[in-house]
Design brief:
The complex is a heterodimer of chains A (455) and B (46). Chain A has 455 residues and is of the alpha/beta class. Chain A is built from 15 helices and 16 strands. The radius of gyration of chain A is 24 Å and the shape is globular. Chain B is largely without helices or strands and 46 residues long. Helix content of chain B is 0%, strand content 11%. Chain B starts with a strand and ends in a 37-residue tail after the last strand. The chains are: A alpha/beta (455), B little secondary structure (46). The interface between A and B is large, with 92 and 43 residues.
Chain lengths: 455, 46
């Protein structure tokens, strides 16, 4: 008899005073008491463990038998100690689904941590023409195969620096996608300095999902983003609050970045929540810039901060106040299929970024790195071998991922982060992995709280 | 009646063997732009 491809595996963690048991291969989640917490260490054994074994000294044989039976019932039901017998199919339809349109390789801010080198990606500052944008949208449609739901993200730099063309492209995309019988989700990511009432009205009329950059507390935001009179907290916060007062029908996220300067980033999340923002995303900086970069020495503080944030969000929920923190969202009952879970990111195949000149890169973070250039929207894909390289990376081929308990949630993580820190898209970004695992624990605990209160 | 364990999520990985619809978000194009996870997505075909 051959052994299963993925052996049974559990992950135990505590958060907000509860003990959790995650069955990795089924994604089942249990809250357990002290007895079954210890007994779970002996899953796989055919008989109840002896009371003499570590962790069980304080329990009677009858108690152990009772707890063990409950665990075995879950094993029999397929919610604990499950295995996956065969390797899942790694093939996926490579049709294009989403493009990131870099309509402006320029920005009016000079944020210290910007991965795009303050907006220009290490090149001449430039703006996309309507012709290049139109060709990009046509390329998306022509490459989308049978995919029905398409996505375009207007990005930069700062896309509002090229607002006239952005408007034209939104309208062209809407009509072209409708004519093709498909559906379109449009996102625009902006630093909000140029978010006038008129632009806000337009974005809402077109149901654009808007990602608004604000890093949190005034001193945190201004230390990273402000440039003289522009981009300061007061200006950006006022613009964002005015825009959100209209309750954008396309949805929104207020999105910031935290660095080594604000390891107490939960205070920034709560500050944004206190401003009345419900949809919040605050991300760890990914950089090697000294003084800003997160280091291994910061990990204990960062992990504790995520836990603190999760506990606060749970407490707020109990008091009837909801905060939707993006990284604590998790699919529970309608989780993605295995195909998506073994390779989460579609960069290079289903998702590409396009420069103002029409060059195609696997994603926005690879823009300007010539070895990753796939082609142009005028010539099409000229380097399928680069696409194949991305398609070949998944949680079965990445050594660190294959045995990681978080593999079916993280799905292998970000190619660009891996490349930045290991020189290999199939490599590992160790700090990112640790943060990711903690976020998943927090997300499960926050989700569990919602389930508890519903039941 | 279980006394020691409360099951919150009865999970089951949906194995599609290459027939997944591919309609869900497939990158960090939505909110985060740096370190998205697939875990925070939901199936579009629910």
């Amino acid at each position: 008899m051959t052994s299963p491809f993925w052996q049974p595996q559990i992950h135990k963690f505590t958060l907000a005073g509860k003990k959790y048991l995650l069955d990795v291969n089924s994604s089942s989640l249990h809250v357990v008491d002290d007895l079954t917490w210890h007994l779970a260490d002996y899953l796989g054994s055919e008989t109840p463990p002896s009371p003499k074994l570590p962790g069980l000294e304080h329990f009677s044989p009858d108690q152990i038998a009772e707890g063990w039976q409950e665990l075995q019932d879950l094993v029999e039901q397929g919610y604990l100690w499950t295995a996956i017998s065969e390797p899942p199919c790694a093939e996926r339809d490579p049709a294009l689904k989403a493009i990131c349109l870099n309509v402006a390789h320029d920005c009016n801010l000079r944020c210290k941590y910007c991965f795009a080198a303050t907006g220009h990606f290490g090149r001449e500052r430039s703006l996309m023409s309507f012709e290049v944008g139109k060709q990009s949208i046509d390329f998306l449609l022509a490459s989308s195969g049978s995919r029905r739901n398409l996505a375009i993200d207007f990005f930069g730099g700062e896309p509002l620096l090229n607002w006239t063309v952005t408007r034209q492209l939104i309208e062209y995309a809407e009509s072209a996608v409708q004519a093709a019988g498909k559906r379109l989700k449009i996102t625009l990511t902006t630093n909000a300095t140029g978010l006038t009432p008129e632009i806000g009205d337009y974005l809402n009329a077109h149901r654009v999902n808007v990602v608004l950059s604000l890093d949190g507390r005034p001193q945190v935001h201004d230390a990273m983003r402000a440039t003289g009179t522009e981009g300061g907290y007061a200006q950006v916060q006022a613009n964002i609050s005015r825009f959100l007062a209209q309750e954008p029908p396309g949805g929104y996220y207020v999105r910031g970045t935290f660095t080594r300067h604000n390891l107490d980033f939960s205070q920034d999340v709560l500050h944004l929540a206190d401003l009345g923002y419900r949809e919040i995303s605050l991300e760890p900086v990914v950089t090697k810039i000294g003084g800003l970069a997160l280091t291994e020495a910061d990990l204990p503080a960062l992990l504790a901060e995520y836990e603190k944030l999760a506990e606060t969000i749970i407490e707020l929920r109990r008091n009837g106040r909801a905060i939707n923190f993006y990284h604590f969202n998790i699919g529970t009952f309608h989780a993605p299929c295995m195909e998506r879970r073994i390779r989460g990111c579609g960069a290079g195949q289903e998702y590409v970024a396009i420069t103002p000149e029409g060059e195609i890169y696997p994603c926005h973070q690879f823009v300007g790195q010539e070895q990753f250039r796939l082609g142009t929207v005028f010539t099409g894909i000229r380097h399928p071998e680069v696409q194949d390289m991305f398609a070949g990376v998944n949680i079965m081929t990445k050594t660190e991922c294959r045995s990681c308990w978080a593999r079916f949630y993280c799905s292998g993580g970000c190619y660009a982060n891996s490349y930045a820190f290991s020189g290999d898209i199939a490599g590992n970004y160790a700090i990112g992995c640790e943060l990711q695992k903690k976020r998943i624990e927090c997300a499960l605990a926050v989700a569990a709280e919602g389930l508890s209160s519903e039941n | 009646m279980a006394k020691h364990i409360v099951t919150l999520i009865k999970g089951k990985l949906n194995v599609t063997n290459g027939t997944g619809c591919g309609e869900c978000d497939n990158s960090c194009q939505s909110a985060c732009k740096t370190s998205c996870t697939v875990g925070n997505q939901e199936c579009e075909r629910k």
